[in-house]
Amino acid sequence: MKKTFLILFAGIFGFANAQEPANYYSTATGLTGFSLKTKLGEIISAGYKTKSYDNLYTGYPSSDTDKFYENDGSVLDIYSENPTGTDPYNYQHGVKKCGNYANEGDCYNREHSIPQSLFKQASPMVSDIHHILPTDGKVNGMRSNYPYGKVNNPTWTSKNGSKVGPNASSGYSGTVFEPINEFKGDVARVLLYFVTRYQTRLSSFSSGNILNTSNVSQGLTTWELNLMLQWHQQDPVSEREIVRNNAAYVYQNNRNPFIDHPEWVTAIWGPALAVDDASFSKNLTIAPNPVKGNIINISGDKDLKKFNKAMIYNMIGQNVQTIENPFQNGNTITLKNLPKGVYILKTGELNTKFIIE
Predict the structure, then answer these.
(1) How many alpha carbons fall within 13 Å on the CB side of residue 78?
(2) Residue 12, number of CB atoms within 10 A of its CB
């Protein structure tokens, strides 16, 4: 589906801090590091309403409907969505739910981002909508119980470009599953939510080369954590995540704090050790880069005029500037007194990194 919106941290539809309730995080004020993580785990566990596994299909119309690409009301499946063109297939809510499948497009089911075998299908993890996404049955099956990771030499590729193959990141050499760039930050914040929400239970789970069951404060194995921190930085919070977070709060009465406050990822785990520039768009460039004044020129191989917003984020995920209709009268953007540092410009499905000197 053609993507015609800008990924947002806050803005349209009147969202402010993703519509978090007043004082929801008040007891976390002033905390940092793993003390902050522990407190957030307490906050998002209090009042949680456990729903049945089967009930997820009734929650998905509110949390996972495509209102962001072609806006056609179909199931938003991160394993089949094509942000820049026509989807290979799509589903309507409640239609073609999985029984048997052989090929992509046969049916959709429920994907546990943290495989349910790691917690022995126990409640409430087995039905927590924050980490369980509607996805194509075939791709879900190909992902299996593999960790999310970076694949250079895929053994299998889905129709939207998700990949299975040997892990290319140091620290783990097994098979991993890599989603497309559009949803890498989404996946990262889901995993960070899980290890925060279930910190007190992690020591009883299996690792699966994903969970750090011996260091529950860290939550994820070191190699996986480093990669998720990179993905969090490369792909800032999207409008899809904001809408999903709000819907999940209505559905089960808790929130993903790393969508509401992406800066807390760095406050807890620190910055990513390195950011792989390969995950940024090759068809969007900024000149000059590094930036020495307050004017930047944007160019790309797409019609930039179709994008009605541009957003600039710092490297801890905070939105520091929003530009309305940035490309209607040319391809220059005026920066507003941003301090020296590294930033991400994101418009539509395009993103790129630049430096202010």
Answers:
(1) 28
(2) 13
What DSSP element (H or E) covers 175? strand 175-178
Q: 29: Cβ–Cβ under 8 A, 6 or more apart, which residues? A: none
Calculate the average pLDDT of the chain. Answer: 90
| Domain chopping of the chain, boundaries | 12-272, 280-356
Half-sphere exposure of 22 (CA within 13 A, CB side): 0
Phi/psi of residue 206, nearest 5 degrees:
-85, 150
The 10s digit of each residue's pLDDT in 77-120 is 999 999 988 999 999 999 999 988 999 999 999 999 999 999 99
Q: How far apart are CA 276 and CA 230, in angstroms?
A: 7
Give the pLDDT band of residue 345 (cuts 50, 70, 90): confident
Contacts of 95 (CB under 8 A, 6+ apart): none
Of 70, 284, 283, 79, the closest CA to residue 161 belongs to 79
List, in sequence order, every residue forming a beta bridge with 313; answer none if it has no partner.
319, 344
Mean pLDDT of all residues in 282-308 = 82
- CATH number of 280-356, picked from 2.60.40.3080, 3.50.50.60, 2.40.50.100, 3.30.70.1520: 2.60.40.3080
